[in-house]
Amino acid sequence: MSVLTYTNHAFDIKDLDLWYGDHHALKNINFPIHKKEVTAIIGPSGCGKSTFIKTLNLMINMVPNVKMTGEINYNDKNILSDKTDLVELRKNVGMVFQKGNPFPQSIFDNIAYGPRIHGITKKVHLEEIVIKSLMDVALWGEVKDRLHAPALGLSGGQQQRLCIARALATKPSVLLMDEPTSALDPISTLAIEELILELKEKYTIAIVTHNMQQAARVSDKTAFFLMGELVELDETSRIFSSPQDKRTEDYITGRFG
Amino acid sequence: MTTRSNFDSNLKHLKDMLIEISRKTENALKESMNALIIQDIVQANEIINCDNIIDELEHEINNKAIILIAKESPVARDLRKIIVALKISSEVERIADNAVNIAKSTLQIGTEKHIKEIIDIPKMMNIALEMLSDSITAFLTEDVELAKSCAEKDDIVDDMYGELVHELMGYVQQNPMQMNQIVQLAFVCRYIERVADHSTNIAEHVIYLVTGKQMDLNS
Is the ipTM of this complex over 0.85? Predict the structure, then answer.
């Protein structure tokens, strides 16, 4: 695995092991994630990539019988310590899932949901946040006349952008995306990819994807996981032109198995 | 288990096409040398007329490569293989142009008696032919060492080229009436030297294919 020099980490994962009961799902992961970059995580089903991304905001704790050792340093603090404030962590480390999952509420209320939980009640503040979040995901122009219409009336691609806007509303610094376009049509997929490239100006992004061309297009760094191991982490341009590990080469060229 | 058997068989087809264009080019070079030595005007004309077959093969290789890139989204070694195939086909096509150039020089010399027996030029051509053959074999077997060996042979060809041109220029004063022939033979030396250079380029592409690193063998 090539050694990348990081000076500006959002996350620095050290010697991370994770077990689901007896199953050793992540093995000695050492993984720095650079600020304001897009890091793509690729690998075959069951390789641990979704498990890994869910450790970054400790969503993984919702799975019973999970045990972790090692360090997940977020802004130089190990979030695996008992003192971690989960609400605060998840405010700062937002997450977007495979399929857009808006609440059965209006577009406005979907985005205002997070800020309200975090104590923002003034309408003028909420409006400001809603407009800004919608603008950030390039959805404002499409929905500004129907902010109080049900979010579930939006198209699939719009719903996914709404969910990204909802994640941005709490002003996170990191955005985790777990296969964010796998349920979308090609045009909506490209719209989300464009969005990812714009968002990295302000946010650190980690994206799990099965679409290798997507990883190649949007990410700065690519990590290849296999059977719970981080096989290779390097510049995306290098991974897709001259990967160093034969297993990475076999996987990205479709000769895995 | 191979999960991309269709893609793999297309890559193999691309390789086969490169073998074919290389073989045809090699033959054209050998024939051009033969036509020069025995002053065979008919054979020289044939070489010139048949060059379009090699040009068409190059276009077929390019089309095949472009379709593979568009349809298969190759990455890593697969991508390098296709890009290198594109580059090699272009180098080989330019090598074949030198066979045509030699044939044209043969036509220019015509039936005029040679100022001396042509011995060293074919020797130089044999080394250039070896380089072409070695560089293509290195591509097919992904043999970096064989590719690197082209650099040494290229130095030999360069030296021979310098000596031969110097020798030919020496004939100018004694044979002013045969100036055209002397110049054409010097051109032929230059064409052979270009064959060696293009073969060295192929060797560089092979090194890139195998290692992912660019290397300059022609310095």
Answer: no
Q: A224 to chain B nearest CA, in Å? A: 14
Whether B186 and B193 have beta carbons less than 8 Å apart is answered as: no
Would you call B71 exposed, middle or buried from its count of C-beta atoms within 10 A (0-12, 13-18, 19+)?
A: exposed
Shortest alpha-carbon distance between residue A241 and chain B (Å): 4
Give the DSSP letter of residue A48.
Answer: S
pLDDT digits (tens, 9 = 90+) for B62-76: 999 999 998 888 999
Calculate how close chain A gets to B77, using CA atoms only, in Å.
7
Which residues have a Cβ under 8 Å from the Cβ of A246 and sit 6 or more positions away?
Answer: none
Query: Which residue of A213, A243, A257 is in closest CB contact with B76?
Result: A243
Q: Does A242 touch chain B (CB under 8 A)?
A: yes
Distance separating alpha carbons of residues A123 and B103, to the nearest angstrom: 86
- A253 chain-B contacts, CB cut-off 8 A: 4, 74-78
B60 to each of A6, B67, B71, how far by Cα in Å? 46, 11, 16
d(CA B144, CA A186): 41
Contact criterion met (CB < 8 Å) for B212 and A213 = no
Query: Is B75 in contact with A216 (Cβ distance < 8 A)?
Result: yes
Q: Does the distance separating the beta carbons of A240 and B76 come in below 8 Å?
A: yes
Which class for B119: exposed (0-12), middle (13-18), buried (19 or more C-beta within 10 A)?
exposed
* Dist. CA A169–CA A25, nearest whole Å: 32
Of the partner residues A213, A256, A257, the one whose CB lies closest to the CB of residue B73? A213
CA dist B216 and B201 (Å) reads 8
Does residue A212 sit at the B interface (CB-CB below 8 Å)? yes
d(CA B154, CA B185): 20
- Using N-to-C axis directions, what is the helix angle for B120-141 and B5-38, rounded to 10°? 180
Give the pLDDT confidence of B37-67 residue by residue, as tens digits.
999 999 999 999 999 999 999 999 999 999 9
Chain A hits for B75, CB-CB cut-off 8 Å, are: 212, 216, 240-241, 252-253
Question: What is the pTM (predicted TM-score) of this model?
Answer: 0.81
Burial class (CB in 10 A: 0-12, 13-18, 19+), B67: exposed
Strand partners, A93: A174
Backbone angles phi, psi at A177, to 5 degrees: -130, 120
